[in-house]
Design goal:
Elements: E1 2-6, E2 18-20, H1 25-36, E3 60-64, H2 72-89, H3 99-116
Parallel strand pairs: 1-2
Antiparallel strand pairs: 1-3
Helix pairs in contact: 1-2
């Protein structure tokens, strides 16, 4: 079982188990981090494969629905991902101009990931 953490409004109807974050890509990552520290684990990588996607204003991450003891791998992965996101973004700006395109790309990637779970 899984749940989706996202700030992408297009993803709201993908599944019932969704946490819609009213905030930035980074706030999605910190929400995921907080949930991992409560015993959830990562099921998809928290960062995109393309460096261009770091400028996206939206992100969806799939985590386990059930909780267990802290998963060290997930905790390390999300912490390192937040650090890498901050480093990579640096003084660049989020690309709000193409938000709708990023929302659709994120939704397509989410569907693809869910097909593999």
């Amino acid at each position: 079982m899984h749940q989706i953490i996202t700030n992408n409004p297009l993803a709201k109807d993908v599944e019932k188990e969704i946490i819609l974050v009213d905030g930035s890509f980074r706030e999605v990552l910190t929400t995921v981090r907080d949930l991992i520290h409560k015993g959830h684990r990562l099921l998809t990588h928290p960062l995109p494969a393309s460096s261009r996607m770091f400028l996206s204003p939206v992100r969806s991450v799939v985590i386990s629905k059930e909780t267990k003891d802290l998963d060290e791998f997930s905790a390390t992965m999300i912490s390192e991902s937040i650090e890498l996101y901050d480093k990579h973004l640096g003084n660049r700006y989020i690309d709000e101009e193409h938000r709708k395109d990023y929302e659709q790309i994120d939704l397509d990637l989410l569907h693809s990931a869910l097909d593999e779970l």
